[in-house]
Input
Amino acid sequence: MREPGETHAGGAAAVPFFRLDGVTKRFGGVVAVEDVVFDLWPGEVHALVGENGAGKSTLMKIVDGLYGPDEGMLEVGGEAVSFSSPREAEAAGIAMIPQELDLFPELSVAENLFVGRKRPRTRWGGLDWEAMQGEARTRLDALGVDLDATSTVKRLSAANQQIVAIARALVGEARAVIMDEPTSSLTEREASQLFGIIEDLTAEGVGVVYISHRLEEVFEISDRITVLRDGHHIETASASDLDVENLVRLMVGRPLHELFTRSASSPGEVALEVRGLTRDGEFEDVSFTLRRGEILGLAGLVGAGRTELAQSVFGIRPAESGEILVGGQEVRVRSPQGAMEKGIFYVPEERRSQGLVLPFSIKNNITLSILERISRFGFLPRSERQTAEGFAKELSIRGAKLSDPVGRLSGGNQQKVVVAKALAREPGVLLLDEPTRGVDVGAKSEIYRLMDDLAKEGKAILLISSELEEVLSMADRVLVMREGCISGEFGGGEATQENVMTAATGGRSGADGPGEKVSGNE
Amino acid sequence: MSAATAALKRLKFSREAVLLGVLISLVVVMTLLDPLFLSPTTLLNTSRFFVEVGLMALGMTLIIITGGIDLSVGSNLGLVSVAVGFSYAAGLPLPLAILFGLVVGVAAGFFNSVFITFLDLHPLVVTLGTFALFQGLAYGLSNADAVSDFPPWFAYFGQAYLGPVPGQLIIFVVAVAVVWIILSRTSFGRYVYAIGNNEEAARFSGVPIRRVKIALYSGIGLLVAVAAVIYTSRVYTARGDTGLGLELDVISAVVLGGASIYGGSGTIGGTVLGVLIIATLRNGLILAGVPSTWQLFILGVLLLVAVFLNEFFRKGEE
Output
């Protein structure tokens, strides 16, 4: 590990490459980041950590010119700048690689590297394909990867797409590269390849901002770590001065175990059983049981097919084969209405696009799933308001009126509205997909307490989550999915961070994961 | 421009108030052109000419709120007119012929909805196809001929008066009330708005999207059929080209009334004002002796202005 300042070549060491000073950004009434300080020196890896919704992405979008700060300033090379677009940031040597890569899947690697850039031209003014491919090859070679510059990006593995995105940043002569959760869909082996590339970059004086919630990774590659919580700057320290335990405490603001609530459980009869569920290209031969009063965790990497599986059980895209049994009876679920009638409700990961009708009021969102039940001859009853009020209270949706459009609420309150809508339908089986994503710590702990209460009431809960701590702390049992298949199942005692990660990535280190097939580059 | 835009933005008119203002100034202009315009008799008479467009606009409002559109209403009107006239000419008793027409109208709407919901095709493309299809069918079946030897009582639908009030105005008022109640007081109405604002979230909330859309497109078919019977009775002739181009008036009225073409917003009150404005304008242009081709031009301008104003109000509300 290097200390910042060590690798500064020449005379450029006096000032950081870029620096944010006292930056505040608000969206409507919601403060995303407040009075935050952050800097990046040439040749260092500076990790930015914090819980979902802590403001990491917002902060980096300010550096990337996507947002202008409401207060505070951004300096590049010691001089105040104000970018009005990512293009201007790029011209200043700053490139951002978002979590959802902004590549063009239908284009070739070489074309992707040159999209939006000055491309080499032939004498006749046409595009000089050979020059482009040559340049692309040089860039890829410099990264030490063996990739065909003419292949279509969508055919590449997730890891190679990530590399193309990095190469793309370097074609733009980036001196600072911001990586947002770059390993979220990579296997362990692919991740270590990526770390090798990051090391090479820093050796050449490129600074890297590394956003990740995988704390082991953060300690593995970063020189300094900055912690954000609820939009505030909490700490910036050298990686060697921190350990996982106190980093977590800084991130959540209290010892980890206090965040979660989970009472001892005694699961009852089987509420939901799935046998051999298959949907081509999404998941294959998935079987599991879920009991009343049980919280079953479903872990796995992004893209492992967990969301697809849950949505299929909910009738969004019905499975092609396999059986679903509710309370021991086989059921055919062809639509969400059908699933709801069987007592299944799915709380989607995509809160804003799938969970809520944003311009609708809190009341109208909560009652949307039960209109048919409460209506008389199709007419909306006067009691609709009270019904909604009851659920809003149960979930302690605070600081908002029932008539407020949900689009204006904080992430935490929005999530509570989605859950309220689900509970209004009184489901026996709840499928929760990343229920605490983008939710502040306070709301998070309330959602955990609610999940615990619901399990105590005898509801069966499937908890899909990419946050291992959440799964390990809340679930009675953990299922792991990898590439569409169940790759591990762990009872309360056996579920450890290591076991679960091994099953999720297909790595060889664990004992319980199948581990035969290590997914590499395609 | 930008200064004017900024100034306009600061004005917080409700859309309905603006429309009402437009309507009143139109009436004033009309009265200046022809002092008789403001007499109750003329006004009530005018109402005979907008009921057909008005009925269809009610259905169109709900469809546009869901983010859909139906371009086939004018053609469907011609098809129903032919169905009524020619089945009667072929020997079917007139009451049955009218019933048959209503069935044809609903069936045509249902036909649209099947393509839109089960094949998941965009309503614009589907109804553009059926726009041609229904019209072609109407021409083909009628052999471009007309039927007008209806029994005298058929005239009741389009030419009767209750005191000074034209019969179809009563039908329209009842239809406005019914659709208004459906949209604002029923779960169906809530679904219509939910689908228009976020169809995906509506699906995840268990909203029966297909059922709602089938009901909407079939429902507008029924409104079209009623309008067709009134129209045919009013002109006392059944022809294939009846209703030709009416979709323009219908859609203009709805958009002018404030429904966003992107879905999610729109009111029955706004649509009724839109219908009244377009009817007054059409009537006034006739009074002023503007040829029908230029009326079309002016209607086109109005539609563009309405779309622009909608965007403008929408942004202001955000």
